[in-house]
Amino acid sequence: MTDRRYVIDEMISAKAIAARIEALCRAIHDEFDGTDKLVVVGLLRGSFVFIADLVRELDLPIEVDFLEASSYGDGTESSREVRILKDLRGAIEGRDVLVVEDIVDTGHTLHHVTNLLKSREPARLKTIALLDKPSRREVDMKADWTGFEIPDEFVVGYGIDYAQRNRNLPFIGKVRFT
Ligand code: 5GP
Ligand code: MG
Ligand code: MG
């Protein structure tokens, strides 16, 4: 699988992503205006570029934490079983929390992670995903804010990998096997 030859076709440009993040941050400001206890939680590893751009557009006092949940492994099919590989460093009880995800696909990952974090009794828990593939959903889950809805294509770039490669592409592209 990982040694198959492929090309990457641009799907969402770096410029379009930046413009969308500006709009999303206006909505996030409206939600969290006045807070002094917001923790922005990035789901590793795919959200690391998105969270970096997002927090620099947020004019709010925030902390940043990370959580790693297992998802695809190195293939292109979801495992459905979600495991926590790295937990948050800080407590979130009574805090406002914004969970940042790269893609909501079947929905299992975000569903599992939000249930886990809710059990820790944050004051408020909101979610944002850069990408959403609604046609792939298996559990009832939608992020509070979504960057772009996309069709059922395997995408890479802007933090998102294929077999750990291509995370450093500045745009979102779809993988086309040749
Ligand atoms: P879910 O649990 O919603 O099925 O999967 C979510 C995770 O699967 C995402 O956070 C992402 O890591 C991975 N994933 C879903 N679709 C894609 C895709 O098109 N490309 C890559 N590289 N990962 C994906
Ligand atoms: Mg992810
Ligand atoms: Mg991955």
From TrEMBL:
Cited InterPro entries: HGPRT (IPR050408), Hxn_phspho_trans (IPR005904), PRTase-like (IPR029057), PRTase_dom (IPR000836)
Primary site of residence: cytoplasm
Q: Determine if Metal-binding is one of this entry's keywords.
A: yes
A Gene Ontology molecular function term for this protein is:
glycosyltransferase activity
Keyword field:
Cytoplasm, Glycosyltransferase, Magnesium, Metal-binding, Nucleotide-binding, Purine salvage, Transferase
Question: What does the sequence similarity comment in the record state about its family?
Answer: Belongs to the purine/pyrimidine phosphoribosyltransferase family.
Q: What's the protein name?
A: Hypoxanthine phosphoribosyltransferase
The record's gene field reads: hpt
